[in-house]
Amino acid sequence: MPTVPAHSPEAAERLASTADVTASDAALRRFLHGLPGVDAVGLEGRAAMLGTRSIKTTAKAHAIDLAISMIDLTTLEGADTPGKVRALCAKGVLPDPTDRTTPKVAAICVYPDMVATAKEALGGSGIHVASVATAFPSGRAGLPVKLADTAEAVAAGADEVDMVIDRGAFLSGRYLEVFELVRAVKDACRRDDGTAAHLKVILETGELSTYDNVRRASWLAMLAGADFIKTSTGKVAVNATPPVTLLMLQAVRDFRDAVGVQVGVKPAGGIRTTKDALKYLVMVNETLGEDWLHPDWFRFGASSLLNDLLMQRQKLSSGRYSGPDYVTVD
What is the 3-state secondary structure (H, E, C) of the chain? Predict the structure, then answer.
């Protein structure tokens, strides 16, 4: 079965063929609870083992550049201003002003009211504008509010929308309610010209309690049409972790094998060092192969990670670490 991206018309047709799974709450529950149980010890052991792999010299330089190109450079603070967003966009376009060979980041991620500012600042750079929506980060709002939040971001020019699922509904076993929310937001991502913003579905894995719940939430989001599944908002105590990310990588692999639809993965929150980022890239390569080693399929949700990647990049090229004022402070 040839693979298609989750945002393609062919993917919609293939997901329609799984309609019996989502025909009712009972059917969806049966399917999700019929997924294989997660071997927690095996999962954590595998993640720890992959974390011991090392990347040297030329391969390390390539991996650092790849990691930079996968970053969703993010500012999601109540004190965000147009000036701060424009400065972040400038950094995303040219992360290291002293070295124009440095790759651009994948996207700038902001609140909906800052999308137009980011879009204008990025111009024709090719960097995407991502916007959080659906009452981020709590998701505690009614469906009309969530859809209006999404529509505002898309109308302002967002290329990508990062939504949050209703964890309360999920943990209460109201799976069809969560499925229909994701599907409704996916519909709200469509533009009048027939194109659509890509949808990243945030599971907030730190609040899902068990690995089995993470697997179920991953499949639920993908069945509803997610283009990416994302670990976290970055606003809770526990965000991305290697075992949870590995589990989500396994889920997208199994989903592609079953349905023929390829979905991306975005760990977010708490990934701050080059060493950590390279561990995640090893995990992607070992679990999914080169098909996912591209910004279209794997992203880092981060703000401070870029600074460390830039310092390590300079160390490889010059043999010494830069001073503390080498990179801009976000």
Answer: CCCEECCCHHHHHHHHCCCCCCCCHHHHHHHHHHCCCCCHHHHHHHHHHHCCCCCCHHHHHHHHHHHHHCEEEECCCCCCCHHHHHHHHHHHHCCCCCCCCCCCCCEEEECHHHHHHHHHHHCCCCCEEEEECCCCCCCCCCHHHHHHHHHHHHHCCCCEEEEECCHHHHHCCCHHHHHHHHHHHHHHCECCCCCECEEEEECCHHHCCCHHHHHHHHHHHHHCCCCEEECCCCCCCCCCCHHHHHHHHHHHHHHHHHHCEECEEECECCCCCHHHHHHHHHHHHHHHCHHHCCCCCECEEECCHHHHHHHHHHHHHHCCCCCCCCCCCC
Question: Helix, strand or coil for residue 198?
Answer: strand
pTM over 0.70: yes
Q: What is the pLDDT of residue 325?
A: 52
d(CA 166, CA 179): 10
d(C-alpha 237, C-alpha 215), whole Å: 20
> Mean pLDDT, consecutive 10-residue segments, the chain of 330 residues?
92 95 97 98 97 86 97 96 98 95 97 98 97 95 96 97 97 98 98 95 97 98 98 94 98 97 96 96 96 97 92 85 54
Give the pair of three-digit tokens for residue 69.
């190109």
DSSP 22: T
DSSP state of 280: H
The span from the CA of 147 to the CA of 135, in Å, is 9
Q: Is 211 helix (H, G, I), strand (E, B) or coil?
A: helix
Catalytic residues: 162, 230, 266
Contacts with 222 (C-beta within 8 Å, 6 or more apart), sequence order: 6, 229, 251, 252, 255, 259, 261, 263
How far apart (Å, rounded) are the C-alpha atoms in residues 193 and 101? 35
Give the three-class secondary structure for 70: coil
Closest residue by Cα to residue 115 from 82, 69, 163: 82
CB 102 within 8 Å of CB 68: yes
